[in-house]
Amino acid sequence: MLFADSYLQSVYDRTAARNPNEPEFLQAVGEVLRCLEPVIQRRPELQRHAILERMTEPDRFLQFRVAWQDDSGNIQVNRGYRVQFNSAIGPYKGGLRFHPSVNASIIKFLGFEQGFKNSLTGLPMGGGKGGSDFDPKGKSDSEIMRFCQAFMTELCRYIGPDTDVPAGDIGVGAREVGYLFGQYKRIQNQYCGVLTGKGLSFGGSLVRKEATGYGLLYFVEEMLSCMKQDSVKQKTILVSGSGNVAIYAVEKAQQLGGNVVAMSDSKGYIYDPAGIDIELVKSIREGSRQPLSRYVEHRTSAQYTEGCRGIWSLPCDIALPCATQNELSAQDAEQLIKNGVSAVAEGANMPCTPEAVSLFQQAGILYAPGKASNAGGVAVSGLEMSQNSLRYSWTAGEVDQKLHQIMAGIFHSTFDAAKEYGAENDLLTGANIAGFLKIADAMIAQGVY
Ligand code: NDP
Ligand code: 2IT
């Protein structure tokens, strides 16, 4: 990767040399460094304090064995991870991902990005991420429980409500968080807010489940209103994925008057020109964890196509990638642009490849980077931490209102930072600069470590 600035080039080259075979991590670092060029020029003391060199090296990277017994009595071995990336502005905070593709590169890219995202929320949270190459698909409930217990038996020594607070991500939802929380409590004999996304009867926050998807739409509404004097109403929308983020993005888009016509899972996509029946999707996916293809058995207006990437060939006004990293390529971007897309906002982490992002920006299409537009989930996690500290619960209305305010605030700090640093309307540059500056200033104030 080539940079105009020689200092940024040296930081990137050194990171690349020290982290070989970690393409996702280097992709995330490269994107941030590229956006920081105007900041480095304006604030030379950042180089003197070696802020970039320190930020690209995690505080701590933990890897551990997770051995557990399956229903047949066989012993299975998986690999567990937790990266504690940066704690300048708060305890490490970020989700856990259980998916067979999980490796060091994916955990580090997610942990690196999480720090900037958490900074943008304005809440006191540092950056962290974790997970395992464990595949929850096809496992019984007892196997999931035993795996979560084994995972937490090791993880519990590194986390705590003022140290590191994990939550969910792909493959980790309320069920897994419940098992993880139970095991932490049993081992440490402490009932505390050590995880977020907990069940509502044991310290979870109202609206956490909906937060990432709802927050994405609050961001999109603010972006459309401020940058195009427009709204989601009557727009044709594609949402990839059909997990936690996608489902609540669709629900909020529909509440705002948008027409969501397609969703996907890792196997294929559904196209329903009559509008997605979100309660049906919930019953298939949340209720019984079945493939999305089952949708067409219940809806005559819909059709199912194998291959998840095909979703981007459908015409739309707004595209919301909400599945996984690098799910939307340059080829997909070209197709969307040809079909007249006017806004793309990321619900997933890093779903658009760098080439796809450049194509959107060159075509003048509004593009919202995930670290800004999907920050609603971790924002409500931060609110869950506050409620746990207060030993109090806010109403759904109170949490939703705070979420709405936080997402509008993220849009404005992103938009304003872009303008201030000479990159007007470039929300990617704005998000990286706004997220970065707060962490950098805290690191300088706290001395070398
Ligand atoms: P879920 O596990 O609930 O759902 C994941 C969805 O993405 C499923 O539809 C899944 O399909 C699909 N998917 C997963 N991996 C792949 C893949 N390799 N290729 C194609 N499709 C895939 O996860 P979430 O909804 O929680 O997370 C989705 C994205 O949002 C992730 O990028 C996550 O990091 C990000 N995110 C999540 C937040 C949260 O609060 N949960 C907050 C902010 C961002 P299938 O079921 O077939 O595997
Ligand atoms: O990517 C993310 O922001 C999340 N998976 C949510 C993290 C959290 O701590 O709620």
CATH superfamily of the largest domain: NAD(P)-binding Rossmann-like Domain
Q: How far is the N terminus from the C terminus?
A: 28 Å
Output the strand order for the largest sheet.
9-8-7-6-10-11-12
Shape: globular
CATH topology of the largest domain: Rossmann fold
Short description:
With 449 residues, the protein is of the alpha/beta class.
Can you offer a commentary on this structure?
There is one protein chain. This protein is of the alpha/beta class and 449 residues long. The chain has three domains: 6-55, no CATH class; 60-191, 3-Layer(aba) Sandwich (Rossmann fold); 211-368, 3-Layer(aba) Sandwich (Rossmann fold). The chain contains 18 helices and twelve strands. It has helices at residues 6-18, 23-35, 37-42, 45-48, 51-55, 104-121, 141-155, 174-188, 208-228, 244-255, 278-287, 295-298, 330-338, 354-362, 370-373, 376-390, 396-420, 427-446; strands spanning 60-69, 75-86, 92-98, 127-132, 164-167, 236-240, 259-264, 268-271, 303-306, 318-321, 343-345, 366-368. The strands form two sheets. Strands 9-8-7-6-10-11-12 form a seven-stranded mixed sheet, with helices on both faces. Strands 1-2-4-3-5 form a five-stranded mixed sheet. Strand 10 (318-321), helix 13 (330-338) and strand 11 (343-345) form a beta-alpha-beta unit. Helix 9 (208-228) packs across helix 16, helix 10 (244-255) runs antiparallel to helix 11 (278-287) and helix 16 crosses helix 17. The longest helix has 25 residues, at 396-420. The model has no long low-confidence stretch (mean pLDDT 98). (2Z)-2-iminopentanedioic acid (2IT) binds at residues 93-95, 114, 117, 167, 169, 196, 349, 377-378, 381.
